[in-house]
Task: structure prediction
Amino acid sequence: MSLFLVVLKAVKLKETQIRGFVCVSCERRICMKDKIFGVLQRVGRSFMLPIAILPIAGLLLGLGSSFTNKTTIETYGLQWLLGDKTFLHALLVIMNQVGSAIFDNLPLIFAVGVAIGMAKKEKEVSALSAVIAYFVMNVSINAMLQLNGKILADGTISKDVLSGTIASVCGIQSLQMGVFGGIIVGLGVAALHNRFYKIELPSALSFFGGTRFVPIISTIVYLFVGMAMYFIWPTVQGGIYALGGLVTGTGYFGTLIFGLIKRALIPFGLHHVFYMPFWQTGVGGTMEVAGQLVEGGQNIFFAQLADSANITHFSADATRYFSGEFIFMIFGLPGAALAMYRCAKPEKKKQAGGLLLSAALACMLTGITEPLEFSFLFVAPALFAVQVVLAGSAYMIAHMLNIAVGLTFSGGLLDFFLFGILQGNEKTSWMLVIPVGIVYFFLYYFIFSFLIKKFDFKTPGREDDDTETKLYTKADVNEKKASGNKADGKTDAADDEFSAAISRGLGGKDNISDVDCCATRLRITVIDPDKVNDSILKSTGASGVVHKGQGVQIIYGPRVTVIKSDFEDYLANVADENFEDTAEIKDEQDKKADNSNKEAAETKTDEPKETVIISSPMTGTAADLSTAPDEAFASKMMGDGAVVTPKEGFVAAPEDGTVLFVFDTKHALGFATDTGISMIIHVGIDTVKLEGKGFDVLVEAGQHVNKGDILMKLDIEYLKANAPSVTTPVICTELKENQKIRLLNEGEVKAGDPLYAVDTY
Result:
């Protein structure tokens, strides 16, 4: 429970926010969900650092393991080339050991990599703390194993311990937890680090404050985490053999169950515990070969290989535990890699392509699937579920087709060539792998492509880590220039003043508990709403300010993402805030508003000098903007226009023009007509919380379109079920003082019909 509270504090979820998540207001639930989603995205990106090393490690391990196998060398009479004391043998042994070292210590690599990725500042401290915590956790587990008689005094493992559940972890006998052990350490240490790296202790203990406190608290916490894992983790491990009993006595269905379980255990690092008995013991069957009783599927295959002259066809009952791997490792998963590459953002395709190509090659050549599987496992678990089902079925199909291709390491091309092609189709039926594999390639490709696009999964190349760059390439370039370049590490004075003004209007840094944004609004959760000064906030250029309990929405328009980033930097770096008396700001703001109203009244004439017609982008029901079920839109804080409640699932270009930007959550886009009218089409109300679900955007920023071209497709039923309203504001965001909106159509309207006029007086 204490660790849970630490994690909550690390993401700045105060008690009042937690209550709001449950019952206070919809607005605060949205902010909370956005915050949690952002944290999960950071978690997913933090996995990429350790994952990046897996392809090369897989190649080294696969090549080294395949060509140093004694059975292989003796079977093909290659002692002269690959035997002991040859140069190639020595090189392959080294390659094997290097690759093995990386995979054997992958949990520790994940612990360090995740801690670095999740730490906000002082990342080197989090890395050191993760290493310490990892060793402390495993030593603690080891001590519990010894105290409870699981590890005997002479260092041997008790006979009542399930085989494979205790392994050597960096020289420490501990529970086999796989990469999840490292992830548990990395995430926990990062949470502790972000919470305590600036802690101030009493003067007598001040030396141990700040960053020095992080490894101290990590040691204490993970001492108890290790003790807890002794009781928790064996429950997971203990079920493996029980599930394994389903396989041997149930024929083809049993093979399917075996394949499903083995692939599902990959993330936990427990697949070795599961499949090794089937490969090496009587659990995987027995068979008499050359007068000898042989136990285990792999042992049976190699015994038959040694006696191949007397074998008509290798036993598919023995090889059912691995023959199916060639189908999805050589063909299927590379199809998934191609799908992820094709779905990557154009600007990230080169980077994603390099990662995915190396991972696909490792998978095809050596059967090392982790680089590919880990690239989507944590960011899109649904894709991994598809992988488990397809891979599991491959084992069963290979068994049904009597495919009997053996392996030494994994189902890659190397083993496929050695133990399939070289043995002949008569003995292995290896040729059947090719047509089945081609089918699997297309199954993986089309299923992955559909799901990635449908649910906007953040697979490699689709991450939301470069939003500002996308915006800066279009309408916000000038704003970026105006804000100044901070490449030298110094904060621009204007930026400081702007962010300071926002903080002043919100009652100061101490009154701010959470910062977020949507398409056009800076969303702030404050402690005391009475301290918020709307006049000051409007003086920063805000179109309006909306209050919802402790939630404050400041309307800035599309540039809000830049403002949010700068404001967060300001809050992170500012120490003391000494605000002068700003009572005059309100008076100046009121005077400015009065003057603007007077000028607008004087400018207006009976007949407009120019009129631009804006058509409806949707088919549905049109109405005045004042009817919008949102205060900010209805009060025209963000601009003037109209609303359309769609009846058909598409958004079309209202006029000939250019797409200025598409928000990451896909619920809104900026548009500029060729006649010079800047607009925002905001589909639905509070649809930012849907995180892109229900929207299929067909255009990109900078693209010129013609009137009637489809900009995005909508899942109307999903939006109605999950959003407060599908009513869509179509607003002009940059109207001049001498411009006015005149509604042309109310009630039923079709896409392309006139919606409103922009009159210039």
